[in-house]
Each structure stands twice: as C-alpha cells, then as structure tokens.
Amino acid sequence: MTPGYWKDRRVLVTGATGLLGSWLTRALVQAGAGVTILQRDTVPQSELARSGTLARVNVVHGELEDYFTVLRAVNEYEVETVFHLGAQTIVGTASRSVLSTFESNIKGTWNVLEACRACSKLVRRVVVASSDKAYGSHPKLPYTEEAPLQGRFPYDASKSCADLLALSYYETYRLPVGITRCGNLYGGGDLNFSRIVPGTIRSVLAGQRPIIRSDGKFVRDYFYVEDAVEAYLDFAEQLERRELHGQAFNFGTETPATVLEIVESILKTMDAKELKPEIRNEASHEIREQYLDCTKARTMLGWRARYPLSVGIERAVEWYRGFLSGADALSTAAAGSATRPHAGPRTRADS
C-alpha cells in the first residue's frame, strides 16, 4: 500500500463484516479513506465491530440483491472505489440453499456492476472478489488465469458467473474493473467455525479432538488474511493503469497443503499433538485438489505473499486465544458450529 494513497478517497466495501472485509475496511480507515459499507445483518462479534472500525464508517443498511440500495450507496456517498466482497461463501450452505446463493453471489454482483456503470462519472475502479473455486476442477495444476471458468457445484458455479459478469462489464462498457481469485483465506476474525482453521483452533482450546469433514487429503492454497488485504489494496491502486482493467489475478502463497497438514500445523503450534483429528469423510460438492499459480501477480503487479503458513497460523491462534477466552465469545460458544455471520449481505472468505 502506497503511503498517503487512500487518504480522503471515498470507498464502498460490501461484505465488510466478513473475514477479509473486516481487515480490509480497518486498513482503509487507518489509511484515511472515507469508507461506506453495505450491511445486511448486525454482527457484533465481527472483527469490524470488535476493532472499533464499525463506528468509523458510513453504514448503508440493505442487501446486495436490492439494486436501488446498492445504487444509493454508490451515488449518495460519491464512491470512487468499490471493493465487492459480499457473497454467500459456505459450500454446505450453497448446496442447501442454492437459490439464495445465486441471488447474492450472481444477482448481487450484477447489481454492484450496474450501479457502478450508472455512476461511471464517479467510480474510478471496481475490485470484484472472485475465487479459485471459479475455475472448477482441472487436471492441470496449478491454475493460471488462462484456465477456463467452469465451476460445477453451486458455490463454484456462482463464482464463475460473477467473474464472467465482471469481465462482461469491462468488455462491453469499459468499466474499470479488476478481478481477484484468491486461495482459501484464513486468519483471526473468521467466525465460520465449520472451516478447518477456526474450527480446529476452537476444538484444541476446548481440549477436544479437531474434526475433519473430508478424508483429510483435499489440497488447497491457504492464504493469510493480512496478505490478502495487501493484495487487494495494491491491486486497487494499480488499477490506475488502464492496461489492468478487465484483468483477473490469482493471489495466494503457492504452497498447497492438505487439510490434514493444516490441522497438524495447528496442533504443533498449539502444542497439542495428542489430540488426534477425527476424520469423518463426509465432505461433498467440493473439488479435491486446487491451487494457484501467482506468476502474473508477481510479474505485472510486483506483488508476493509475505506470511508463510507457519506465521499465519501463529497469528491466527493468538487471535482466537484472545477471542475465545473473552466474555464476547460466550454467544459464539453457545451457538456452536451453527454460527454463520453474514455481511452486506453475506461474508466473503472462501471456505
């Protein structure tokens, strides 16, 4: 992030109470930006609220599915930069509630893009959060940006569609849009405890065996949230370059790991190797192996991840130790694994 770049810039963030949204919004506020968020639900335990950032931003209450609410947020707050992170991101939820997933992830995206087109005299850049899931399953790994978008399962297909819509708005209307395709985000502030990192940490802190829904052999690129924030801010700044408009970039660590390796890393970090994971082998509607090639981001943006997995896990464990030992964790503990915070309208973090 360039010092001073974001001072007094007017920014809209959707999905601001999610994992990435909370950290990104905080970074923007600290950098002096005038931030507006679109918020569907109140999430008092989100990092956005707990850090005090929520009290420092404009809040437009409503859903991505409501075009006129999105338009009002962009127009009335004279937004020049949009970070569109809002989406339903939990694979299981997407499979159970496919209509609402398509409404938020697909319709919500075209509403944001159309609002930006309608306010083209204001909006100078739009960063749309796609996902490595948008690629679907390919025999050739790692994925480069040239791989076709062919998501098959509901969540994956919704991200393929959103990604293509963003490209369409650039090709047709020359909307200054850029697309991010990130690996699996993790870090402090993720309250979706069905995900492997927060779920494992919570289990260990409770002295319980961590649960692995799959067979433990699924391979992903795990991407620490503070690295992702730097990637988004750097990319948005560089969208001043017209040659980057309409382009998609992979962001990740390029160090794929199995689910079991992630769990073992957490157990080692927390000195709890005696808590052998319970492998349930119940996962469905998920791709077995996917990870990213980030050569394009390195060569065209000069970007690379700074936090190796070991450091990211240590920082995440530290965050959850504080969170789960505090009074503000009581309602989360009571809710159990059913906790599903949503943001403007739903969290964006890529399960």
Could you walk me through the main structural features you see in this protein, from its secondary elements to its overall organization?
The structure is a single chain. The protein is 39% helix and 14% strand. The two termini are 26 Å apart. Strand 5 (125-129), helix 6 (154-173) and strand 6 form a beta-alpha-beta unit. The chain has helices at residues 19-30, 47-50, 67-76, 91-96, 98-118, 154-173, 196-205, 225-238, 259-269, 295-301, 309-325, 330-335; strands at residues 10-14, 34-39, 58-61, 81-84, 125-129, 177-182, 184-186, 211-212, 219-220, 222-224, 248-251, 257-258, 278-279. The strands form 4 sheets. Strands 3-2-1-4-5-6-11 form a 7-stranded parallel sheet, with helices on both faces. Strands 7-10 form a two-stranded parallel sheet. The chain has a domain at 10-187 and 224-253 and 291-307: Rossmann fold (3-Layer(aba) Sandwich). It is of the alpha/beta class and 351 residues long. It has 12 helices and 13 strands. It is globular, with a radius of gyration of 19 Å.
